[in-house]
């Protein structure tokens, strides 16, 4: 079975998805909450690159983020942010719009949506409970 990374088109497909997502985050009202999470921290170019690197590995492709950062623990990566239910909903809305804009095949988009929803739900639940990230 091909990975979601391969089905999306490898590095090129992941880059397209990340760029579509952050174009929405930076320029559309749906992205305002997500944009506020990143403004002034690292700069959007760095955030786009980190998201690309992370998603490549998350979707079953090259582990660029791990190679650069030595780990890819979602909770630790987001512990400095306030990522509650509203932010999670906004993130999923922006990602859904990005996927819609790319015209992905329905099965692929459904599988991506499931993976993204699980990750967002885990982050929101961890922050709501006040979990300490595991190294």
Features:
135 residues; mainly alpha; Globin-like; 8 helices
Description of the structure:
The chain is mainly alpha-helical and 135 residues long. The chain has a single domain, classed as Globin-like. It is 73% helix and 0% strand. The chain contains 8 helices and no strands. Helix 2 crosses helix 7 and helix 7 runs antiparallel to helix 8. The longest helix has 24 residues. The protein is globular, with a radius of gyration of 14 Å. The termini are far apart.
Query: Helix tally?
Result: 8
Q: Tell me the name of the CATH class.
A: Mainly Alpha
Shape assignment: globular
Largest sheet, described in full? none
What would you report as the Rg, rounded to the nearest angstrom? Answer: 14 Å
The percentage helix is over 70%
For the record, the count of structural domains works out to: 1
In the CATH hierarchy, the architecture is: Orthogonal Bundle
The secondary-structure class comes to mainly alpha
Strand content: under 5%
Give a concise summary.
The chain has one domain (4-126): Globins (Globin-like, Orthogonal Bundle), CATH 1.10.490.
């Amino acid at each position: 079975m091909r990975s979601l990374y391969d089905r999306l088109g490898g590095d090129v497909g992941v880059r397209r998805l990340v760029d579509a997502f952050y174009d929405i985050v930076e320029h559309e009202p749906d992205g305002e909450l997500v944009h506020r999470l990143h403004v002034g921290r690292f700069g959007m170019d760095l955030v786009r690159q980190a998201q690309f690197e992370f998603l490549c590995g998350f979707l079953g492709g090259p582990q660029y983020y791990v190679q650069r950062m030595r780990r890819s623990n979602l909770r630790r990566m987001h512990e400095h942010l306030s990522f509650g239910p509203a932010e999670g909903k906004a993130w999923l809305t922006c990602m859904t719009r990005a996927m819609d804009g790319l015209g992905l095949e329905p099965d692929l988009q459904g599988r991506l949506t499931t993976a993204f929803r699980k990750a967002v739900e885990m982050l929101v639940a961890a922050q709501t409970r006040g979990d300490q990230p595991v190294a």
